[in-house]
């Protein structure tokens, strides 16, 4: 299943690379990034706070585009581990399964602009153990939060959520599901989760996205990925469904 999902993603990457190299050949302006990890010099790394959200202060320097090295400078960065997001999609009914739950990070938006801190979003969870695969996290969270088992998982993309101040990496999967089996509520009481589950037509979800009613970054990115790649995903699903 994982290899099948990776094959689908490789096709998408291959097509993207073709477009990139076409751009290079046409105008000659595109320059491949020449720097890597060896071009960063970490002088000190000091823990400020360690816990569920750990904070570290770095003193560092790096190479410059114009040549030479930057002066030494400090940056603080948060380490909260990595996460997996699952887009539960029912291709038979053309609908998504979304979750509604309270998010403390949305309180500031609520205080200043009157928005609700209860957000519409997709299934998500942290990678709890180093040996745990992203696909295993996806399956676990899909069951815990929406009461669903995927017929297939499709790897969509991996991205850095906020690299200016956080190490978090997010991996997104699309899970093909039978939405009629979704639970009405989900989450673990032991983790203080109180989740309401919604099954909504794809067209309605796209409208919510267009009008800013879905503003969780991972959900926005995931839905935009689906808008770009849904037809290819459906073709793959038709070929591989039991």
Written description of the protein model:
The chain has 242 residues and is α+β, with helices and mostly antiparallel strands. It has 2 domains: 37-79, no CATH class; 81-239, Nucleoside Triphosphate Pyrophosphohydrolase, CATH 3.90.79.10. It has helices spanning 2-27, 107-113, 134-146, 202-210, 217-240; strands at 40-49, 54-62, 73-79, 83-90, 95-102, 118-121, 123-126, 152-160, 169-176, 185-186, 195-201. Strands 4, 5, 6, 7, 8, 9, 10 and 11 form an 8-stranded mixed sheet that branches. Strands 1-2-3 form a 3-stranded antiparallel sheet, with no helix packed on it. A hairpin with a 4-residue loop joins strand 1 (40-49) and strand 2 (54-62). The longest helix has 26 residues, at 2-27.
Strand residue content: 25-35%
The tally of structural domains comes to 2
Biggest β-sheet description: 8 strands, mixed
Structural class: alpha+beta
Number of strands: 11
Spell out the CATH superfamily of the largest domain: Nucleoside Triphosphate Pyrophosphohydrolase
CATH class division of the largest domain: Alpha Beta
Shape descriptor reads globular
CATH fold-level name of the largest domain: Nucleoside Triphosphate Pyrophosphohydrolase
Mean pLDDT: 88
Q: How widely separated are the two ends? A: 13 Å
């Amino acid at each position: 299943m994982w290899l099948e999902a990776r094959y689908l993603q490789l096709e998408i990457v291959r097509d993207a690379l073709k477009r990139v190299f076409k751009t290079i050949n046409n105008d000659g302006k595109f320059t491949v990034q020449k720097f890597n990890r060896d071009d960063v010099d970490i002088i000190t790394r000091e823990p400020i706070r360690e816990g569920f959200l750990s904070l570290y202060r770095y003193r560092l320097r790096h190479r410059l585009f114009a040549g030479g090295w930057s002066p030494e400078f400090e940056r603080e960065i948060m380490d909260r581990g990595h996460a997996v997001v699952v887009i539960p999609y029912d291709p038979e009914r053309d609908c998504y399964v979304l979750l509604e739950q309270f998010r403390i990070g949305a309180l500031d938006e609520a205080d200043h602009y009157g928005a609700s801190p209860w957000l519409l979003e997709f299934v998500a969870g942290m990678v709890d153990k180093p040996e745990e695969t992203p696909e295993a996290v996806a399956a676990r969270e899909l069951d815990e939060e929406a009461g669903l088992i995927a017929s297939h998982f499709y790897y969509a993309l991996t991205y850095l959520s906020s690299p200016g101040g956080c190490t978090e990496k997010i991996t997104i999967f699309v899970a093909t599901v039978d939405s009629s089996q979704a639970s009405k509520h989900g989450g673990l009481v032991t983790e203080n989760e109180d989740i309401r589950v919604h099954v909504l037509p794809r067209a309605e979800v796209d409208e919510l996205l267009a009008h800013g009613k879905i503003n969780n970054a991972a959900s926005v990115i995931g839905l935009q990925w689906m808008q770009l790649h849904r037809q290819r995903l459906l073709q793959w699903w038709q070929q591989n469904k039991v």
